[in-house]
C-alpha cells in the first residue's frame, strides 16, 4: 500500500532511511519540506464504498465548505470539535444549518481540549459563530452525550467499507476516533498545515498542539493525508478572501440561500477572513486546481478563479 511520504531536506530516493515519526516530532524545520507528488491523488473515493466524515469547529468558513460538498458528496456523519465554536453550542448551530439540506445526517459531539490557548479575539468570534452570524437570537447548547466520540463514529460508519475525513478544525476529536476506524480510513484532507510547518497562524494545529502531534503519527498509517492552505505572504499573493459579490451570487433557496442570508447579517465577521476551509472542500472536487508547496498544497489558481470555482461547485 502506497503511503503519503513527507521529506525534509532529503531526496525521494533516500526516504526509506528516514524515520517519519522523527520528522513529525520536529516543531519547526528550517529546511524545506516536500510532498512526494507521486503519492497524492492515487486513491479515489468510490461512491458505493466510501463514506465521508466532516470534522468541524463550526466556523463560518466551515459553513461555506459544507455548501460546496452537499451537492456532490453524501456526508455520513459530522463531528463537532472545539475550536472557533464550543462543542455544545457548535453542535446545535451545525445541526440547524445542515437541516436545510439533509436533516438526517448525524451531528456528533466531539471533544474539547483540556488546555485551550488564550486568544483575546476568540470570545467575540465564538459568540458570533455559535449564533450562525446572528441568525440565532442566542446560542443554544446541545445536551451532553453519554457515549464517547470513538463509539459514536464507529456506530455511524458501521456499514462503511472505506472512510474519508475532511478535517476543518483542531485534531482533538480525530485522535480519539481515528484509531477505531482501523484500515478503513483511506484518506484525510485537512485544512491548514502539518506539524512541521505550523506557525501561530495555523489555528487548527496550534489550538491543540498535542493532538496535532498525535494526529500526525496516526496519519502515517493512512493511505493519503493532504493538508490544504492558502499563501501566507499577502504582499506577494492575493488574499483569497470571500467577498459580498461572491455571497450575493448564491441562490436564494435551500442551503445556499440560508448561507447567503446568515452571512449577510454581519459581513464584518468574515470579510477580513480567508477561504481556508472552503479551499479544503474544493480540493475534494477539483484536486488539479491545487499545487504542492513544501508539505502542503495551495491553490494554483488566483483568488478570482477560486471564488468562481466555489460558486460553480455550489450551483
Description:
This protein is an alpha/beta fold and 315 residues long. Helices cover 33% and strands 15% of the residues. It contains twelve helices and ten strands. Helix 5 (149-156) crosses helix 6, helix 6 (174-181) packs parallel to helix 8 and helix 11 crosses helix 12 (303-314).
Helix/strand layout:
Layout: E1 6-8, H1 20-24, E2 33-35, E3 50-56, H2 60-69, E4 75-80, H3 87-98, E5 107-109, H4 122-130, H5 149-156, E6 162-167, H6 174-181, E7 185-191, H7 203-206, H8 209-219, E8 224-228, H9 244-248, H10 254-263, H11 276-285, E9 290-293, E10 296-299, H12 303-314
Parallel strand pairs: 3-4, 3-6, 4-5, 6-7, 7-8
Antiparallel strand pairs: 1-2, 9-10
Write a concise synopsis of the structure shown:
This protein has 315 residues and is of the alpha/beta class. The chain is built from twelve helices and ten strands.
CATH topology: Inosine-uridine Nucleoside N-ribohydrolase, Chain A
H/E order of the elements?
EHEEHEHEHHEHEHHEHHHEEH
Report the principal-axis shape: globular
* Rg calc: 18 Å
| Helical amount | 25-40%
Distance between the termini: 37 Å
**CATH first level: which class?**
Alpha Beta
CATH superfamily: Ribonucleoside hydrolase-like
Second rung of CATH, namely the architecture: Alpha-Beta Complex
Strand percentage: 15-25%
Number of domains: 1
What descriptors fit this protein?
globular; 315 residues; alpha/beta; 12 helices; 10 strands; six-stranded parallel beta sheet; Inosine-uridine Nucleoside N-ribohydrolase, Chain A
Amino acid at each position: 500500500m502506497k503511503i503519503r511520504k513527507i521529506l525534509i531536506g532529503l531526496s525521494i530516493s533516500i526516504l526509506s532511511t528516514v524515520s517519519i515519526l522523527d520528522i513529525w516530532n520536529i516543531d519547526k524545520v528550517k529546511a524545506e519540506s516536500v510532498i512526494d507528488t507521486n503519492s497524492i491523488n492515487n486513491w479515489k473515493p468510490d461512491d458505493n464504498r466510501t463514506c465521508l466524515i466532516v470534522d468541524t469547529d463550526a466556523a463560518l468558513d466551515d459553513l461555506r465548505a459544507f455548501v460546496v460538498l452537499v451537492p456532490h458528496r453524501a456526508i455520513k456523519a459530522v463531528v463537532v470539535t472545539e475550536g472557533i465554536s464550543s462543542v455544545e453550542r457548535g453542535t446545535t448551530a451545525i445541526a440547524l444549518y445542515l437541516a436545510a439540506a439533509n436533516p438526517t445526517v448525524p451531528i456528533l459531539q466531539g471533544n474539547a481540549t483540556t488546555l485551550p490557548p488564550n486568544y483575546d479575539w476568540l470570545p467575540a468570534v465564538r459568540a458570533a459563530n455559535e449564533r450562525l452570524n446572528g441568525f440565532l437570537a442566542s446560542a443554544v447548547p446541545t445536551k451532553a452525550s453519554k457515549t464517547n466520540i470513538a463509539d459514536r463514529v464507529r456506530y455511524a460508519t458501521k456499514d462503511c467499507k472505506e472512510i474519508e475525513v475532511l478535517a476543518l478544525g483542531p485534531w482533538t476529536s480525530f485522535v480519539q476516533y481515528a484509531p477505531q476506524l482501523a484500515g478503513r480510513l483511506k484518506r484525510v484532507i485537512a485544512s491548514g498545515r502539518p506539524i512541521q510547518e505550523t506557525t501561530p497562524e495555523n489555528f487548527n494545529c496550534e489550538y491543540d498542539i498535542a493532538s496535532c502531534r498525535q494526529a500526525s503519527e496516526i496519519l502515517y498509517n493512512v493511505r493519503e493525508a493532504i493538508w490544504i492552505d492558502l499563501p501566507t505572504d499577502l504582499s506577494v499573493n492575493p488574499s483569497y478572501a470571500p467577498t459580498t459579490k461572491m455571497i450575493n451570487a448564491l441562490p436564494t433557496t435551500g442551503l445556499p440561500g440560508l448561507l447567503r442570508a446568515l452571512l449577510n447579517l454581519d459581513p464584518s465577521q468574515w470579510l477580513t477572513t480567508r477561504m481556508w476551509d472552503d479551499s479544503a472542500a474544493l480540493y475534494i472536487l477539483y484536486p488539479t486546481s491545487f499545487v504542492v508547496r513544501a508539505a502542503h498544497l495551495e491553490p494554483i489558481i488566483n483568488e478570482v478563479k477560486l471564488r468562481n470555482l466555489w460558486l460553480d461547485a455550489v450551483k
